[in-house]
Amino acid sequence: MPAWLHLMGQSLWPLLYAGLVFTVPLTLASFAFGIVLAFFAALARLFGPRWLVAIVRFYIWLFRGSPLLVQLFVIFYGLPNVGIVLDPLTAAIIGFSLNVGAYNAEVIRGVIESIPRGQWEAAYSMNMTRAQALRRVILPQATRVALPALSNSFISLVKDTSLAAVLTVPEIFQAAQRIAAVTYEPLILYSEAALIYLVFSSVLSHAQGRLEARFGRHALFSAGR
Description:
MetI-like fold; 225 residues
């Protein structure tokens, strides 16, 4: 067996373990918090008072306009200067969540605005409040429209979690760095880490396609009724 293949076999489990224990939970937690933040930020931009709209617009401008790596450094290495000390995993979740929230707030706002005004008027004609119309009529339609963009954001986040290595979070890339520091084989280890990210992304892309097809069939069925 070639030496490089033997090394990849030996390092496979440590990298997979780092992915399952740190990368996957980090991705899921960050995306969940980010989507919740994005949803309320989008609603604030659409229906909030001017002062709240201004705050949300500033938040979106700040986190969309600055590099994610810089944001992570500010949160983990900068905040201790003002007395806020966070452990690496918490800092990474906060950083990724804020970034996901900023990008997806615009996605959610856009799809809500894309729903024809007649849908709102139809809901109001049935004596629904704005909140009821949003929950019962608008959001189900907006979800189908937003699904591809949100799915792409989730897949992108899986790869972006490699940046958590700079915060010493022992995810896949950090594990590869540690093994490479001992074996002096960075090309093999980093290539293996890239392949693992590729497998994760491919599985998620397949799941995205099936989810979109399912939502599409549901939309056709609802239209047929």
